[in-house]
Write a structure and sequence with these properties.
The protein is built from 3 helices and 13 strands, in the order E-E-E-E-E-E-E-H-H-E-E-E-E-E-E-H. The chain is an alpha+beta fold. The N and C termini lie far apart (75 Å).
């Protein structure tokens, strides 16, 4: 049995037997003599629509999804609870001791000021200046640690982290660079007025560098209990 070929209209894409039609009865234009007819239209930002007619076999891939870029994976390599006499150290220890020290110093200064006019010796002890500075440092350290939850130690690849319940841990974070598969480390860099914590490659720290997000690691206490 002979089969006649099919002609297609390039405007409406309808197909008609070649032995009966040479013009499209709808559009009144000549038909294309092709068993495979493809029309493409592009709209907007490279959005592509394709119509395919005829006897086609196989798969057609349109706008393939690009592979997802490789990510730099980091994890806590070392987790050690900070404790004194087997008692876990909490962040509020620093805040509370610093606040008490500052209050004591202010009370001493106020007592001296109140007795200056009487010529009598102040009944309140006067604290040395270093104790006031230490109290202020402890208070600021406690508040800052609670806000940041992560503090890189100077000249070291270790850090102090705070868990959700306020306990302090000594940790070290490691991983593999997504660009060159070299080890990575977490560092705090930049001038004093604008220091940032980054994950940087040990092989190419200037170009292979990303801003550190501690939240992707989860709670440090949960990692310690695993």
């Amino acid at each position: 049995m002979n089969q006649s070929s099919t002609l297609h209209c390039h405007q409406c894409s309808n197909g008609y037997p070649a032995d009966k039609f040479n013009h499209c009865p709808v559009c009144e234009i000549p038909l294309d003599n092709a068993d495979f007819q493809q029309s493409q239209q592009f709209h907007g930002n490279n959005n592509q629509g394709i119509q395919i007619g005829g006897d086609n076999q196989g798969s057609v891939v349109i706008n393939p999804v690009p592979p997802e870029p490789k990510k730099t994976l980091i994890h806590r390599e070392k987790i050690k609870p900070i404790s004194i006499a087997n008692t876990p150290v909490k962040h509020w220890w620093f805040t509370a001791s610093g606040a008490l020290g500052l209050v004591g110093n202010l009370a001493s200064i106020l007592g001296v000021w109140l007795t200056l006019g009487t010529g009598e010796q102040s009944p309140l002890p006067t604290f040395p200046i270093w104790f006031m500075l230490l109290s202020g440092f402890l208070f600021i350290f406690g508040v800052g640690m609670w806000r940041m939850r992560y503090l890189s130690l100077p000249f070291s690849n270790q850090a102090i982290e705070i868990s959700k319940d306020g306990q302090l841990y000594l940790t070290r974070i490691s991983g593999v660079c997504s660009q060159c598969d070299s080890p990575v480390e977490v560092r705090t860099i930049g001038p004093k007025e604008h220091r940032i914590t980054v994950v940087q490659c040990t092989n190419n720290p200037q170009q292979h560098r990303w801003e550190f997000d501690r939240t992707i690691l989860g709670d440090v206490n949960e990692d310690y209990l695993k």
